[in-house]
Amino acid sequence: MTTARFKGLIFDMDGTLTIPTLDFNAMRNEIGLPEGDLAQEVFKLPPEKQQGAWDIIERHETQAIHDQILQDNAEPFLARCRAADIKLGIVTRNERRSVDALCAKYALEFDAVVTREFQFIKPHPAPILHILKQWNLPPQEVLMIGDYVHDIDCGRAAGTKTCFYHNQGSTDHGEDADFTARSIDDLSEIVLG
Ligand SMILES: [Mg+2]
After folding, report:
1. 100 has catalytic annotation
2. What angle (nearest 5°) sits at the alpha carbon of residue 10, between those of residues 4 and 13?
3. pLDDT at 172
């Protein structure tokens, strides 16, 4: 019987639970946006241009919806977490249908899912706070895991512990995180020992 260090895990989806699928640079180029946070750059566009930008993003997401592949060893890890009574959640800026497609493909179940349709998106802490309330868990007993600085900022703002997921070859940084994992096996070590 393993003693888990956390009572709940909240995952980012693209690039964390899954191998990175979305090509954010291709989306930026097609919309004509500079480097930077995709959603924030879209919100800076004149109002009449924003819908067109979201249409482009949604087209990319639709193309990617069935291409999502879980990270190596993610399935057995999630199963071990389940067996250890750890709550499992997702906070993503992607759409609900993308999460549903991933869950259907791999027969996964999560205790809480917050997607772009929610009123606030990362790095705002509200998506995580929403889940903590649902789970009735104090933030320090929950680990937020993500491959982008927003995931870490979101967790820190909500008061959870944080784990930066460093994909091979990624230039993203997460030095403010409590932990860094370079694989699901690393993450398993952090969570289950
Ligand atoms: Mg991500």
Report:
1. no
2. 130
3. 85
Q: Output the CA 33–ligand 1 centroid distance in Å.
A: 19
CATH of residue 188's domain is 3.40.50.1000
Is 12 among the catalytic positions? yes
Cβ within 8 Å of residue 97, ≥6 positions away: 65
Q: In angstroms, what is the span from residue 16 Cα to ligand 1's centroid?
A: 6
Asked whether residue 38 falls in the same domain as residue 120, the answer is no
Q: Residue 122, CB half-sphere, CA atoms under 13 Å: how many?
A: 27
Is 45 within the bounds of a domain? yes
Residues 42 and 126 occupy one common structural domain = no
Q: What is the pTM of this model?
A: 0.91
Summarised one tens digit per residue, pLDDT across range 100-144 is: 999 999 999 999 999 999 999 999 999 999 999 999 999 999 999
Which structural domain range is residue 46 located in?
24-64
Residue 122 lies in a domain: yes
